[in-house]
């Protein structure tokens, strides 16, 4: 049995054998030059205290006072540098040894090249709360058993069908374990995120109150700028993007077509966006055809338009990537390459706030028909998305409650 105590401003390791052994093996090892306890502590004869020899115990100097710290010789713990522990640290055997005799400071020493200092005001020291958290992070005996069984199970499960699911047992254990999570630094920026989306929501509502005050081109540019904020994966809007059409006039080497707006994501992938001013009744017919509300020309025309853009982009391929990258290099980071990789599209037009249940159902069917290629959104969709984003960020910022 091993204990660590503070004696006369020193750290002392006390060894007492169990009832089935004695200290003769310790004395023999000391005479040979070094005795090691628990694969962690190694002591020479010079570190032994004689006050424990008359008793059935052996005492060794583990650390000595050094200002506000106890200093432990590097050779005692097999480290690259001496270890310093703050005197206000609660020092026990578990400070040095984790489950199954894992030497804690040896593991840390393998990862760093400078001296290990725990607590106190010294430069580069590990704060005590962080050190206590580190000790809690070392795997328990139960965790180690689950890891071992899980690895064996993964190797043998293809051969022995009757084996229990050790991987599930491991995941179940972690699900039940009360793990401490560090505070998230993201919360510091959440108020700014909320303010950003609230600004976009307010501006969009203001624009929708008087869309006739904007030209089609100005409206498109403003909404496209909002999309960069609402969908952070996009980093740039490319206006009046020239592409090649090799099919309308096959005899020519390609006809120039122009996409009003395209979106570029952070990886260089290009997507098409079609933005229409919110004219009234531009989505669905007011009368049913065979008991269905069908798309109006404004909607079907926009769908056809972006499908053609996508078709021409895909056919242009690598040559198109090079031309667009060259044409737009002044708008992009140095060396940035545009990619035409199965472009998708976004169509924004109309309002759905006045739809009845049947119209909403039929409009949703139309949207899902093209869902694998394009996202058809109304301006009311955009408003709802913004409101939901603001709600969820506010919920996270307040720990799950909203005001």
Topology:
Layout: E1 2-7, E2 10-15, H1 24-32, E3 35-37, E4 41-43, E5 48-49, E6 58-66, E7 69-72, H2 74-77, E8 83-86, E9 97-98, E10 102-103, H3 104-109, E11 117-118, H4 128-137, H5 141-156, H6 166-176, H7 190-209, H8 216-230, E12 234-245, E13 255-265, E14 270-275, H9 297-327, E15 345-348, H10 357-369, E16 374-377, H11 379-397
Parallel strand pairs: 8-11, 14-15, 15-16
Antiparallel strand pairs: 1-2, 2-6, 3-4, 5-6, 6-7, 7-8, 9-10, 12-13, 13-14
Helix pairs in contact: 5-6, 7-8, 7-11
Shape: elongated
Poorly predicted ranges (pLDDT <50, ≥5 residues)?
Answer: none
Summarize the main sheet. Answer: 7 strands, mixed
Number of discrete helical segments: 11
Mean pLDDT: 86
Structural class, from secondary structure content?
A: alpha+beta
What portion of the residues fall into strands of 2 or more residues?
15-25%
Terminus-to-terminus distance: 57 Å
Report the C-alpha radius of gyration, rounded.
Answer: 35 Å
Report on this model:
- The structure is a single chain.
- The protein has 403 residues and is of the alpha+beta class.
- It has three domains: 2-138, no CATH class; 142-176, no CATH class; 190-397, no CATH class.
- 38% of the residues lie in helices and 20% in strands.
- The protein contains eleven helices and 16 strands.
- It has helices spanning 24-32, 74-77, 104-109, 128-137, 141-156, 166-176, 190-209, 216-230, 297-327, 357-369, 379-397, and strands spanning 2-7, 10-15, 35-37, 41-43, 48-49, 58-66, 69-72, 83-86, 97-98, 102-103, 117-118, 234-245, 255-265, 270-275, 345-348, 374-377.
- The strands form four sheets. Strands 1, 2, 5, 6, 7, 8 and 11 form a seven-stranded mixed sheet that branches.
- The longest helix is centred in the C-terminal third of the chain and has 31 residues, at 297-327.
- The mean pLDDT is 86.
């Amino acid at each position: 049995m091993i204990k660590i105590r503070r004696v006369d401003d020193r750290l002392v390791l006390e060894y007492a054998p169990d009832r089935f052994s004695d200290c003769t093996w310790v004395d023999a090892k000391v005479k040979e030059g070094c005795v090691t306890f628990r694969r962690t502590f190694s002591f020479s004869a010079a570190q032994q205290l004689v006050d424990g020899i008359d008793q059935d115990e052996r005492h060794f100097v583990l650390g000595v006072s050094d200002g506000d710290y106890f200093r432990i010789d590097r050779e005692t713990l097999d480290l690259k540098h001496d270890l310093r522990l703050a005197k206000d640290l609660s020092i026990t055997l578990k400070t040095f040894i984790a489950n199954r005799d894992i030497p804690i400071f040896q593991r840390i020493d393998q990862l760093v090249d400078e001296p290990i200092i725990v607590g106190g005001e010294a430069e580069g020291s590990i704060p005590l709360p962080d050190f206590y958290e580190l000790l809690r992070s070392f795997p328990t005996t139960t965790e180690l058993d689950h890891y071992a069984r899980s690895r064996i199970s993964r190797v043998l499960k293809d051969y022995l069908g009757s084996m229990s699911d050790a991987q599930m047992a491991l995941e179940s254990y972690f699900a039940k374990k009360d793990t401490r999570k560090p505070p998230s630094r993201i919360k510091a920026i959440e108020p700014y995120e909320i303010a950003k989306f609230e600004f976009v929501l307010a501006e969009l509502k203001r624009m929708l109150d008087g869309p006739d005050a904007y030209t089609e081109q100005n409206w498109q540019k403003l909404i496209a700028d909002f999309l960069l904020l609402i969908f952070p994966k996009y980093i740039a809007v490319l206006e009046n993007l020239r592409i090649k059409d090799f099919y309308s006039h096959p005899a020519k080497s390609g006809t120039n077509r122009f996409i009003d707006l395209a979106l570029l994501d952070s990886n260089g992938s290009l997507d098409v966006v079609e933005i229409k001013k919110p004219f009234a009744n531009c989505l669905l017919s007011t009368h049913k055809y065979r008991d269905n509300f069908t798309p109006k020309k404004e909607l079907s025309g926009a769908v056809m338009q972006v499908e053609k853009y996508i078709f021409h982009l895909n056919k242009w391929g690598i040559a198109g990537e090079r031309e667009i990258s060259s044409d737009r290099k002044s708008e992009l980071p140095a060396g940035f390459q545009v990619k035409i990789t199965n472009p998708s599209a976004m169509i924004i037009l109309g309002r759905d706030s006045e739809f009845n249940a049947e119209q909403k159902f039929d409009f949703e069917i139309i949207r899902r028909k093209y869902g694998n290629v394009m996202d058809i959104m109304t301006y009311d969709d955009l408003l709802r998305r913004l409101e939901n984003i603001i709600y969820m960020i506010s919920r996270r910022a307040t720990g799950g409650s909203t005001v």
